[in-house]
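step: validate -> pass
step: tokenize input -> pass
step: predict -> running
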Amino acid sequence: RAGRRERVPVAQPAEIRPLVAELNGLLDQNAANLARARTHVANLAHGLKTPLATLTLALADPARDADGTLRGLVGSMDQQVRHHLRRARAAALEGTARGRIGLASPIQDLAATLGRLHAAKGVRVRTEIAEGLTVSCEAQDLDEMLGNLMDNACQWCRGEVRVSAATEGDAVAIGVEDDGMGLDPAAATSVLRRGQRLDETVPGNGFGLSITLELAELYGGGLTLDRSDLGGLRATLVLPG
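step: predict -> pass
step: emit ->
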């Protein structure tokens, strides 16, 4: 029930081996059903969230929605879609054995990719991740959360981004810091809300941080924003270790 094992060990007394085989067959079938459900959820998310985000941004122009009625309707639709997607993903995650993902490799890969994408700006991404440090998380979710935070740091930094990680009890805290302007406490709270952007001149749709927070909370973790000693923002992503 805690999700520490995917199957019942087969090394059992002969009398109960048939029962163990039946149980493992049932568990395998259930795992396959959950995998299909997660695929459908991912397809639904891709098919609905992006168009709704596009509509939200388009309706920000008062000429298209003078009284805000359409923005309200689109916002309500988006909330409903995101609510049911969260419930579906949470149901798929609950009670299943999650793989342990090493942090060093995906973070280093993202750092190299983002360094190339932001080469014209001269961004330097430093990583300080101990080998062997792992989190209990699906690989695709980890990539999405790290990608959102690290790309955000690259967009707002003056030239330096630092990514570090350390254990905190049973959890792992991943810090993504930049040397940009940073945020005041009130703004740090508001940017975690869906679609919130503080600077319309910077590319993005304002959904990255809120999506990262939602994903982290599905795993029992969280996301906080505060000031980095580099001078800019520090985003701390906490995930189960």
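step: describe -> Residues 194-206 have pLDDT under 50 and may be disordered.
step: cleanup -> pass
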